[in-house]
Amino acid sequence: VYVPTSGLIPQCLLLAGVECELYNEEYMTCMWGSREMPTVNYSLFYWLLLLPKPRCKRYLQDQGVRVGCYFEQNELIQFQSFHVLINASVGGKTLEIPSKRMLLQDLVKPAAPVNLTIRNMSNNQLQLTWASPYPNDQCLEHAVKYKSNKDTSWTELSVNGDVFSLPSVDYEKSYTFYVRSKINKFCGSTLFWSEWSLPVFWGSNSTSKGTVEEQLYWFGIRTVLVPIASCLLLLVLVILLVRMERVWVILMPRIPNPSKNFDELFITHNGNFQEWAGVPKDVVESFKPNYSENICYVTELPPKDSHEPLWDSSNHAPPPMPGPPAAPNEHSPYWNSYGRV
Amino acid sequence: MKRMIIFCMLFFCSTMVLTETSPRRAKYRQILRKIEELESMVKEKDAELLYTPENFVDGCENTTVTCFKKGILKLQPARSQDTPKFTKAIRIVSRFTAKDKQCNATPPCESYEKKTPKNFLKGFENLIQMLFKN
Questions:
Q1: Residues of A in contact with B52 (CB under 8 A)
Q2: pLDDT tens digit string along A303-330?
Q3: Which residue in chain A has the smallest CA separation from B21?
Q4: Which residue in B126, B127, B128, B131 has the most chain A C-beta atoms within 10 A of its own C-beta, making it the best mutation to test that interface?
Q5: Taking CB atoms and an 8 Å cutoff, what residues of chain B touch A186?
Q6: Is B130 in contact with A79 (Cβ distance < 8 A)?
Q7: I need a labelling partner for A2 at 20 to 30 A (CA). Which of A20, A91, A142, B54 fits?
Q8: CA nearest A187 in B: which residue?
Q9: What parts of the sequence cross the membrane (chain A) (predicted)?
Q10: Which residue of A has its CA nearest to B36?
């Protein structure tokens, strides 16, 4: 247990200060210490101006050390100066540590809102309403914080009345709402917000735990059952189609075989189209050639500078034309050039 | 027919009364907003200190308001370009009155502590907040 010299105590307490909070105007707690404070005997005196100085009737303790005082509603008057004096006594010596003048209306911390209710309005609008345990609605301002299951951060907005409207909601998402209150500037200059209320949920998944399981369930249905069912249906239809020949014939008609019309051509006339078609004989005769023509073999004329013997090249170059190679013919004009080199 | 018309008029008037907020509270709201404006514009440096009532005596609200109104008239704006807005706010606040329910003895204005213009306005704000709440 650390027992400091008397000089250190006032420094510790002055730094820490006395913090008072008036909860919902029902009771007040003033705290001046914590576990780290020196374990000396503390006494609190308080007074409102023009009243005598009563002691604290109910101390709040932490491991045997007085660290705060609890005030009943009837001990408090708002809009009047409120002073607190802490006496720290150790080893027979007593030190007085006064606090600043306080105005209790500036220390009010309202209770958190309750009975949060969501209503579906037209045009995809949501309306959130709530009630407050604080007696005077005109003195409150509120803040709403909400988030959908797809958002990463909270959205916080100030509200003056006790109704909040969310203009457009996505029915695929689920939303969570919290509300808190504060005394507005018309009733005090407070800094304390109340605690956040209990949350209220809205959306397609009312509990966050069911989300993953439900999603898996629907996923399974969509990706497995549906294809299987459609394949089975297709199979049934195909079988029916095959079995019901009347339907089959309509859908898949036989390719007609025209060979019956051409029996005469193939059998009677033995494939002779002209005969079957009835082409006159003299026309057919006129198409037959009545002269013969020798095939003319053409080869490339070698250049004059070439030292290769002509006969070698002639022996090595068989003509690609079918038929026997023609003997050098005096009438052929090409023979002359061939022989001249 | 006459009774019907009278009934409809009464019904209409009663609904109007129900939906209307208290005019007193609307007035307090207006005064608080004006005090807030004055706090943002008021000259603090080298300004005269003013008697600031505190620990208001129940039943003597108007007497306390009168003390504040005396002090309000001595306030000056910090910047000359704020003068029109400042003057208008002072005018509105000066016209404000409250009701003394039952005032037996109030300390005179000069018995209170003198404070800087901003703290004086905060004191006035406290008084109006008390009136609004009650």
A1: none
A2: 876 555 444 444 444 444 444 444 444 4
A3: A138
A4: B126
A5: 25, 28-29, 32, 129, 132-133
A6: yes
A7: A20
A8: B129
A9: 216-242
A10: A185
Helix (H) or strand (E) holding A5: none
Sign of CA dihedral A56, A59, A64, A66: negative
CA–CA dist A194, A182 (Å, integer): 6
Q: Residue A328: helix, strand or coil by DSSP?
A: coil
Q: How far is CA A101 from CA A19, A44, A49, A94, B61, in A?
A: 12, 15, 10, 22, 22
Say yes or no for a CB contact (<8 Å) between B129 and A50: no
Residue A100 C-alpha from the chain's centroid: 53
Residue with more model confidence, B10 or A111: A111
Report how far residue A281's alpha carbon sits from residue A326's, in angstroms, rounded to the nearest whole number. Answer: 36
Distance from first CA to last CA of chain A, Å, rounded? 135
Name chain B contacts of A139, Cβ cutoff 8 Å. Answer: 132-133
User: Cα separations (Å) of A146 from A39, A64, A118, A169, A305?
Assistant: 44, 42, 13, 12, 102
Lookup result for tokens 């000056």: B76
Chain A neighbors of B122, CB-CB under 8 A: 189
**Residues B56-78 pLDDT 10s:** 888 888 889 999 999 999 999 99
